[in-house]
């Protein structure tokens, strides 16, 4: 028979409405909506970054230099190219204030500016005033503005004095909004804004201290940014200059948003997988109800293909409806919630309907619907007309013909390839897909095991009728135990994995402080200050260890005479400047893995020792020539050794270490890490900051709190995504409970006829639900822990430990959710009269 006939039959079947497909539509729509919403928000942020790129950057283009100011030639090119140039200096320092006979100190990210700042936009100050007035002279001292949180930390009020280094300032206003703040990236301290010329006597911008300069350019209208970027890189090749322009004014935020949204899309795909189980169960239940219809068609001569096509068309139409509902929901939600989302974003966003994320979500929805409906539909082909009248769908073989297996494999490969393409992370996609497939296999095995154990345990429950009834029901394949364990278990698995990963990352950052991590990082220590610095610490019984090293920053520009990225690709070491030190001998905690360290008196051509793991990842080998730009000067050194560098303990570690004579002429400062008891930290900071006001102290615990806050936001976002998976699983659970209500009515009628009271029957229903929930939660706990371990070990390369509060919560959630759904759909069966039910079944 033709496809046209199948279409006519499908249209007539659809006249019966959507009864039985509510869960089908809800599962598909939720999964598609989650992916569409995440994609729409991502595109809104990207559009905002593109539209407001110049304002975010503070100019049409920016040239950044590491720990030096632009040379005369570089500045001349900028003045000739742009219509206006603004110089910004960015560095960390300690803000010091004397309040009520006590000295308060806090780490701050200082931005010093010139008179042309800002080229675009304007800062918002409280009280309101022009920035030029706020940074002008007040009471004979230069003015400054601060982030409100820093003002509160120091106990300051407008008009109070504070110091940066050896220079005093007057606080003139609170900095409410910084127009180019998004382009500055992550900082360890709140912002302080001053004029650069007012720092001349502060001792904070001495040669060798750690700062960066950014030159923002306003360009003539119509300037081709691509051509200008090429010209700038050609003119200043090898100087360590980094170029940014308005095409991507906040690259760090753009990259972060892209990676987070890609991860959330993969979490959304997990939700679709959960929904797919509900889709499969709904199709299976629907076809079971159509036994007589299919049997009639087969009797009248309908062949296998016609029956398959008839119901494939029906499911395809319903899938289209579910996908359209999901696209509408996913596209509208960001628009409706735009004010709330914009209020929490650090960057502008342009909310609108974006076709690309909607198309991506639709593709995922179509492939998911195809994968999870193909097998239930394929089973109808292998059933004879006579056996269809005898509940053929339960007796048909579980694995369909080879052609359907091939089609399933092709659909799965296409889904994974699409996810890898759209997310931009093939590795994360394959890990997610592997985790989902593994979880489904484990959950399927668990569902079979639960039914098998229930059947074996039923005889041993004699004398406990409620338990016996519950076990007997669980062992019946028609009761939907597999759907409950699969759908709810997978949703809980995603949530469990997110909880384990979040807890593991937090533990990796905060565990064993201060026993493992140092109490303070001190930077910008001048060479002549090191003796006094060490004297103060070595005599303190609260200090257990001090490590110090000369500190420079360098950018790897070439490897063996070729651009570094041509050799090492997009490795993170090449993303910006990296720490460079020098020493006569290897550090005490370093182990040489290959090559040899230079001799104590070596003064020949520069040599470099590289971190072993990073060298292997970048494809470096002994004898390679590395060109490193340090303070605008290219130093080409031979790679003569590699060594282990442990960055996980928050101690001191350098990617590159050179022989001392290679860096003899470069101005630099020292850094130090101090390991001390917590009770000694306040006195250490007070004494060192008082004696050496130019030194910046970074308290490790404060840095950890700041990073933990960022992790909390990421964990919240991923938990919301995992919550969609759990909600979808709950819908599947509701559907399974609703589908099983007729069987429970019949069961209740039989039990009442045999003398059972309502309380005992209700207890049996509750016990059944609780056992299934515990099974789903237990398997979810196992898969979540395995997923968390895999991500922690192979992606984050950190130690894993089970987060037991989260783990126990998952099991309890499974029991509570299943119990709640089971009891809701147990009320009507308990209220029926046995006679009416039993007469209707005759």
From TrEMBL:
UniProt entry tagged with the keyword Chaperone: no
Domain ABC3 transporter permease C-terminal: 267-379, 723-829
TM stretches of this protein: 21-41, 263-287, 308-341, 361-378, 399-422, 428-450, 481-501, 720-740, 761-790, 802-827
Entry membrane topology: Multi-pass membrane protein
Location within or outside the cell: Cell membrane
Organism superkingdom: Bacteria
Main location class: membrane
Keyword terms: Cell membrane, Lipoprotein, Membrane, Transmembrane, Transmembrane helix
Protein name per Swiss-Prot or TrEMBL: Lipoprotein releasing system, transmembrane protein, LolC/E family
Record InterPro entries: ABC3_permease_C, Membrane_comp_ABC_pdt
UniProt GO cellular component terms: plasma membrane
């Amino acid at each position: 028979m033709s496809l046209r006939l199948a279409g006519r039959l499908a249209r007539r079947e659809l006249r019966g409405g959507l009864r039985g497909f509510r869960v089908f539509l809800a599962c598909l729509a939720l999964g598609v909506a989650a992916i569409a919403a995440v994609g729409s928000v991502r595109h809104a942020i990207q559009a905002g970054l593109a539209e407001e790129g110049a304002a975010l950057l503070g100019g049409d283009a920016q040239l950044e230099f590491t720990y030096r100011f632009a040379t005369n030639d570089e500045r001349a090119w900028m003045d000739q190219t742009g219509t206006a140039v603004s110089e910004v200096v960015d560095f960390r320092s300690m803000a010091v204030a004397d309040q009520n006979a006590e000295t308060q100190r806090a780490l701050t990210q200082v931005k010093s500016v010139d008179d042309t700042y800002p080229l675009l936009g304007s800062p918002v100050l409280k009280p309101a005033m022009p920035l030029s007035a706020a940074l002008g002279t007040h009471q004979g001292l230069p003015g400054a503005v601060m982030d409100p949180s820093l003002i509160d930390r120091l106990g300051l009020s407008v008009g109070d004095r504070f110091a940066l280094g050896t220079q005093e300032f007057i606080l003139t206003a609170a900095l409410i909004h910084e127009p180019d703040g998004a382009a500055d990236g992550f900082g360890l301290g709140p912002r302080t804004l001053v004029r650069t010329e007012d720092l001349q006597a502060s001792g904070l911008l001495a040669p060798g201290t750690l700062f960066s300069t950014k030159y923002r350019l306003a360009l003539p209208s119509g300037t081709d940014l691509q051509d200008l970027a090429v010209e700038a890189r050609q003119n200043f090749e090898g100087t360590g200059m980094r170029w940014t322009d308005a095409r991507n004014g906040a690259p760090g935020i753009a990259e972060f948003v892209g990676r987070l949204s890609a991860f959330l899309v993969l979490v959304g795909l997990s939700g679709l997988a959960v929904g797919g189980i509900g889709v499969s169960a709904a199709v299976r239940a629907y076809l079971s109800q159509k036994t007589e219809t299919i049997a009639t068609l087969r009797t009248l001569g309908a062949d296998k293909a016609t029956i398959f096509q008839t119901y494939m068309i029906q499911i395809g139409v319903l899938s289209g409806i579910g996908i359209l509902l999901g696209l509408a929901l996913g596209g509208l939600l960001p628009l409706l919630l735009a004010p709330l989302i914009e209020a929490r974003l650090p960057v502008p966003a342009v909310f609108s309907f974006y076709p690309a994320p909607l198309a991506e979500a639709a593709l995922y929805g179509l492939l998911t619907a195809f994968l999870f409906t193909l097998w239930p539909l394929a089973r109808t082909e292998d059933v004879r007309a006579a056996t269809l009248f005898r509940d053929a769908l339960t007796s048909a073989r579980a694995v369909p013909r080879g052609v359907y297996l091939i089609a399933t494999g092709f659909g799965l490969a296409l889904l994974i390839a699409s996810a890898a393409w759209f997310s931009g992370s093939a590795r994360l996609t394959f890990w997610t897909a592997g985790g989902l497939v593994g979880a489904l296999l484990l959950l399927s095995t668990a569902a079979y095991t639960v039914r098998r154990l229930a059947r074996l345990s039923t005889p041993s429950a004699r004398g406990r009728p409620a338990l016996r009834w519950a076990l007997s029901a669980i062992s019946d394949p028609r009761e939907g135990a597999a759907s409950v364990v699969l759908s709810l278990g997978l949703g809980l698995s995603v949530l469990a994995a997110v909880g384990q990963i979040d807890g593991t990352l937090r533990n990796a950052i905060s565990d064993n402080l201060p026993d493992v991590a140092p109490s303070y990082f001190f930077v910008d220590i001048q060479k002549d200050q090191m003796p006094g610095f060490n004297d103060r610490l070595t005599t303190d019984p609260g200090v257990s260890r001090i490590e110090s090293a000369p500190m420079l920053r360098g950018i790897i520009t070439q490897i063996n005479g070729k651009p570094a990225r041509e050799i090492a690709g997009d490795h993170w070491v090449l993303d910006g400047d990296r720490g460079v030190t020098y020493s006569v001998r290897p550090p005490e905690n370093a182990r040489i893995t290959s090559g040899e360290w230079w001799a104590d008196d070596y003064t020949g051509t520069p040599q470099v020792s590289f971190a072993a793991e990073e060298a292997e990842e970048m494809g470096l080998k002994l004898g390679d020539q590395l060109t490193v730009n340090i303070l605008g000067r290219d130093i080409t050194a031979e790679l003569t050794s590699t060594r282990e560098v442990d960055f996980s303990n928050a101690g001191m570690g350098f990617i590159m270490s050179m022989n001392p004579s290679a860096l003899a002429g470069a101005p630099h400062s020292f850094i130090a890490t101090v390991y001390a008891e917590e009770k000694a930290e306040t006195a250490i900071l007070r004494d060192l900051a008082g004696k050496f006001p130019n030194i910046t102290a970074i308290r490790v615990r404060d840095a950890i709190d700041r990073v933990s806050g960022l992790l909390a936001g990421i964990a919240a976002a991923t938990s919301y995504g995992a919550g969609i998976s759990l909600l979808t699983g709950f819908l599947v659970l509701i559907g399974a409970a609703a589908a099983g209500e007729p069987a429970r009515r019949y069961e209740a009628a039989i039990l009442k006829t045999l003398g059972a009271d309502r309380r005992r029957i209700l207890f049996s229903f509750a016990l059944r639900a609780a056992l299934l929930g515990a099974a789903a939660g237990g398997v979810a706990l196992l898969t979540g822990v395995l997923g968390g371990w895999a991500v922690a070990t192979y992606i984050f390369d950190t130690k894993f430990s089970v987060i037991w509060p989260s783990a126990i919560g998952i099991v309890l959630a499974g029991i509570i959710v299943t119990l709640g759904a089971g009891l809701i759909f147990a009320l009507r069966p308990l209220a029926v009269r046995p006679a009416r039910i039993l007469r209707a079944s005759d």
